[in-house]
Write a structure and sequence with these properties.
Blueprint lengths: L1 H25 L2 H28 L1
Helix pairs in contact: 1-2
């Protein structure tokens, strides 16, 4: 289960970064903002999973 969540976090981070870069390159502020939000969601998920790992060990 934890590996799935970690993979999901990485996917969100990468997709967010791509969307942010694409939005910035095309001048689309909305897409760039959506990308930043998606990246932050992935960052938060990754932080949560790391914290859970600390308490498991």
């Amino acid at each position: 289960m934890a590996a799935d969540e970690k993979a999901k976090a990485k996917t969100e981070q990468v997709e967010g970064k791509v969307k942010e870069s694409l939005g910035s390159a095309t001048g689309n502020d909305r897409t760039a903002a959506e990308g930043r939000a998606e990246k932050r969601t992935g960052d938060a998920r990754e932080t949560k999973e790391k914290a859970k790992d600390v308490f498991r060990h």
